[in-house]
């Protein structure tokens, strides 16, 4: 099992698919990495030599922000918005949709399970 950027990538999958298991690398980035290093996209990870795995690892370390660093950057950006108390930061803080979606109905993913409100007594 090849270990790249702290992630064990599956050995029986194609290189492009296996690279997408790394947080921060999608299909387009994976294709660009394989193309840059001259690795055939149809090859499986188990067919790669140790030198090729090392090349992939070095390319990702040099050119991409992945895994822990990316998660930390994202969290710091959200925290910065919350500290500024801008509209987006307040929406993050209150657990509401940030990008203008309606909340009268829907928005259950952000708001959580519906809480019953005490009804009118008869």
Word description of this protein:
With 122 residues, the protein is mainly α. It has 2 domains: 2-65, Orthogonal Bundle (Helicase, Ruva Protein, domain 3); 68-111, 30s ribosomal protein s13, domain 2 (Irregular), CATH 4.10.910.10. It contains 6 helices and 2 strands, in the order ββαααααα. Strands 1-2 form a two-stranded antiparallel sheet. The longest helix is centred in the middle third of the chain and has 18 residues, at 67-84. The termini are far apart.
In short:
By secondary structure, the protein is mainly alpha-helical.
Mean of pLDDT: 92
Reported for the largest beta sheet, the result is:
2 strands, antiparallel
* CATH class placement of the largest domain: Mainly Alpha
- Uncertain spans, ≥5 residues at pLDDT below 50? none
Give the radius of gyration. Answer: 21 Å
Helix content: 40-55%
- What is the molecular shape? elongated
| Number of H/I helices | 6
Number of domains: 2
Indicate the proportion of strand residues.
under 5%
Give me the strand/helix succession. EEHHHHHH
Overall CATH architecture of the largest domain: Orthogonal Bundle
Which structural class is indicated by helix and strand composition? mainly alpha
Region (Disordered): 95-122
InterPro entries: Rbsml_uS13_C, Ribosomal_uS13, Ribosomal_uS13-like_H2TH, Ribosomal_uS13_bac-type, Ribosomal_uS13_CS
Biased composition (Basic residues): 101-122
Keywords: Ribonucleoprotein, Ribosomal protein, RNA-binding, rRNA-binding, tRNA-binding
């Amino acid at each position: 099992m090849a270990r790249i950027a702290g992630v064990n990538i599956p050995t029986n999958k194609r290189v492009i698919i296996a690279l997408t298991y790394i947080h921060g690398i999608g299909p387009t980035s994976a294709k660009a990495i394989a193309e840059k290093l001259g690795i055939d996209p149809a090859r499986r990870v188990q067919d790669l030599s140790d030198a090729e795995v090392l090349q992939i690892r070095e390319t990702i370390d040099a050119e991409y922000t992945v895994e822990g660093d990316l998660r930390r950057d994202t969290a710091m950006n959200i925290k910065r918005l919350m500290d500024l108390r801008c509209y987006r930061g307040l929406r993050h803080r209150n657990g509401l949709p940030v990008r203008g979606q309606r909340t009268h109905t829907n928005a259950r993913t952000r708001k959580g399970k519906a809480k019953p409100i005490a009804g009118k007594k008869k």
